[in-house]
Design a protein that fits this description.
The mean pLDDT is 89. α2 (34-56) packs parallel to α5 and α5 (104-135) crosses α8 (187-220). With 221 residues, the protein is mainly α. The protein is built from eight helices and no strands. The chain is globular.
Length: 221
């Protein structure tokens, strides 16, 4: 638990540093669209709060289940930020004859958005790690199936957020939500969902392996 709390504190510190850097860049002449970026990043970090709260409770009860449900509803926001890279304008980087431009403001925007995407992904992976720890899977196969399921749900969540423009709180209107979901199932839905799922699954396996290896090294030391 101490290790998890340290990583959580580090995420919060990095979040404030990231926000401060964005404000400073705009103050000194940058043109970052911070409102949507900060909002998406805030939604991406929320699952960590819910997951950590659930893990800190000693026993499963209605409150633990409620926090876990909230975690699942907001988890796709972490992976959703990967699709925010579409806002980068390629014409700002490549000029005539395919020569890359030395456009400093464009490159700053690229690295700043990419850093936000990385931070959002780490937050999502960390929150998934916390919930997976809480479930205490005794079978490797069950844990693997759990991660596959979560990855698929995350991928589908990114799809409905990006293309159907639905949000996590639209679950409050279940009938209209499910009707819209059923009306928008096609080949692209399945392929896009699986593509994001594979991406998230791979990232999580790497993240969990690193976290487990770090824990084992500390135990040996």
């Amino acid at each position: 638990m101490r290790k998890n709390l340290k990583l959580f504190a580090l995420l919060i510190i990095v979040l404030f540093i990231y926000a401060g850097c964005g404000i400073a860049i705009n103050h000194y002449g940058g043109s970052l669209y911070l409102s949507w970026l900060f909002w998406n990043l805030f939604l991406a970090v929320l699952p960590v709060f819910f997951a950590l709260g659930a893990q800190m409770l000693l026993h499963w009860n209605l409150f633990t289940i409620g926090l876990s449900v909230l975690w699942l509803l907001f988890l796709p926001n972490a992976c959703y930020m990967v699709t925010d890279l579409i806002y980068l304008d390629s014409s700002s980087f490549v000029g005539s004859q395919d020569i890359y431009l030395q456009n400093l403001s464009a490159w700053i925007e690229l690295f700043y958005i990419a850093s936000g995407v990385f931070f959002a992904m780490v937050s999502g992976l960390f929150s998934t790690y916390l919930i997976t720890q809480k479930l205490h899977f005794k079978s490797y196969l069950l844990r693997l199936l759990w991660i596959v399921l979560i990855s698929l749900l995350c991928g589908y969540g990114v799809y409905i957020g990006r293309f159907l423009r639905l949000n996590s709180w639209d679950i409050l209107h279940p009938f209209s939500l499910f009707q819209k979901l059923l009306e928008n199932i096609n080949a692209f839905t399945i392929i896009f969902t699986c593509m994001i799922a594979v991406f998230y699954f791979t990232a999580y396996i790497i993240f969990e392996t690193m976290m487990t290896s770090h824990h084992e090294n500390q135990s040996i030391g």
